[in-house]
Amino acid sequence: MKLLITIDAEVYAYAPNWRSRRLADDIDRDLYGITPQGEFGVRFQARLLQQHGLKAVFFVEGLFASAPHVGPGPLQQLVGEILEAGHEVQAHLHPEWLEHVPQLGIKPGQLFEFSLAQQQLLIGTAIENLTRAG
């Protein structure tokens, strides 16, 4: 039997101070799964899989790194940790981030609602962010 393990890795800005903290609190919650009981997110999962000789594909949301208040640093750290543990990174994106990425000039919506050119721009931006991060 063959099994493909996939993990979605995504973050969204909910903390009221996310801009000044460069999304740090939301990243700790959503990506790293930091709780009072311990850490159970991406780093934990990547290490646990590695300890058992398993590999996974992490579908990482890459559009958030285009938000001016966030930048590429958090994505670089995340991608580096996943790759260092021997796993694969693939693109995943959430157009909700468009609200915070004004330089793309696209209003938020569902991916299927965008024109082909807009979809290509969004997917290309997410892939470019991930490529630069790795």
Characteristic terms for this protein:
two-stranded antiparallel ribbon; alpha/beta; 134 residues; 5 strands; globular; 4 helices
The major sheet is characterized as: 3 strands, parallel
Give, in spatial order, the strands making up the sheet with the most strands: 1-4-5
Q: β content, as a range?
A: 5-15%
Percent helix range: 25-40%
* Gross geometry: globular
Oligomer: single chain
Radius of gyration: 15 Å
Number of strands: 5
User: In terms of per-residue confidence, which ranges show pLDDT below 50 for 5 or more consecutive residues?
Assistant: none
| Element order: H for helix, E for strand | EHEEHEHEH
Give a short overview.
The protein is an alpha/beta fold.
Can you give a write-up of this model?
A hairpin with a 2-residue loop joins β2 and β3. The chain contains 4 helices and 5 strands; from the N terminus they run βαββαβαβα. With 134 residues, it is an alpha/beta fold. The protein is globular and about 45 Å long. The N and C termini lie far apart (31 Å). The model has no long low-confidence stretch (mean pLDDT 96).
Layout of secondary structure:
Elements: E1 5-9, H1 24-30, E2 34-35, E3 38-39, H2 42-51, E4 56-61, H3 73-84, E5 88-92, H4 116-133
Parallel strand pairs: 1-4, 4-5
Antiparallel strand pairs: 2-3
